[in-house]
Amino acid sequence: MHAAERLSHSILTRTSEAAERIERLHTLVVAEQGEIVLERTYNGPPATQPVNIKSLSKTVLAALTGAAIADGLITGVDQPVVELLGPLVPDDTDPRVEEITVGHLLSLQAGLEPTSGRHYGGGWRAGTGWPMPSPAPSLIGPGVRCSTPPAAAISFRQR
């Protein structure tokens, strides 16, 4: 990117002012070429404090999945997630889990029971730095649209 194409101070100022009017926005971070050019907290904890972003995690995971596909870390949305999990898949997992693809997770069609709302905090535990099902999650069936939990999606990581 050439200097003339970089974000101008006036654009960053207008962006920050517009963000200030968004009541539920906690923090805005804008990075350009790997450098943070705007970081401001409006409502909520500081940017250095981790927060539960719930539904936004789906958007972030979709972007990260696209980057992983572009980098060859994931072969595509038709790749079964068990190939990515390898030995992290519990032995007692429902055999239908083998049918769940990356695309099923991204489109909320993995068929896993929800872990939010009244289901929050039930069968998930921290493991190797990631939430993992414990015991194996209930499965409605791959391809069935349901409320796939973000925790299920983020448990699928590169080995």
Which characteristics define this entry?
26% helix, 159 residues, 13% strand, alpha+beta, disordered C terminus, 5 helices, 4 strands
The gross shape turns out to be elongated
- The beta-strand count equals 4
Low-pLDDT regions: 122-136, 147-159
- What order do the strands of the largest sheet run in, or round the barrel if closed? 1-2
Gyration radius, to the nearest Å? 19 Å
Helix proportion: 25-40%
What gap, in angstroms, lies between the N and C termini? Answer: 33 Å
The largest sheet, given as strand count, sense and whether it forms a barrel, is: 2 strands, antiparallel
The amount of beta strand, in percent, is: 5-15%
Which series of helices and strands comes N to C? HEEHHHEEH
H/I helix tally: 5
The average pLDDT value, as a whole number, equals 75
* Content-based structural category: alpha+beta
Describe this structure in words.
It contains five helices and four strands. With 159 residues, it is an alpha+beta fold. Strands 1-2 form a two-stranded antiparallel ribbon. Strands 3-4 form a two-stranded antiparallel sheet.
Offer a quick outline of the entry.
The chain contains 5 helices and 4 strands; from the N terminus they run αββαααββα.
Helix/strand layout:
Elements: H1 9-20, E1 27-32, E2 35-41, H2 56-70, H3 81-85, H4 102-106, E3 124-127, E4 130-133, H5 150-154
Antiparallel strand pairs: 1-2, 3-4
